[in-house]
Write a structure and sequence with these properties.
59% of the residues lie in helices and 21% in strands. It is built from three helices and two strands, in the order ββααα. This is DNA-binding ribbon-helix-helix protein.
Length: 78
């Protein structure tokens, strides 16, 4: 079993793919649910904000990490 799974998504009318480890994917799904938005919409949002030289998979991992840090900071009162 691979630690990284490849998934496909349609963003702004074109099909693309990203590869994430299950914990990152699970957190991404949880973030989209918390925001009340489809996963594809969240992926498109991250895609729109990433630097063009960064790949989508890396941008998604960094986004999940950033959200985890924000959550930890909020819980600790910082």
């Amino acid at each position: 079993m691979s630690l990284v799974e490849k998934r496909s998504v349609t963003i702004r009318g074109h099909r693309t793919s990203y590869s994430l480890e299950k914990p990152f994917y699970d957190d991404l799904v949880a973030i989209s649910a918390t925001r009340g938005m489809p996963l594809a919409a969240l992926v498109a949002e991250v895609d729109a904000q990433r630097p063009r030289e960064a790949n989508l998979s890396s941008a998604l991992r960094l986004f999940v990490l950033e959200q985890a840090k924000l959550g930890a900071a909020q819980r600790s009162g910082h």
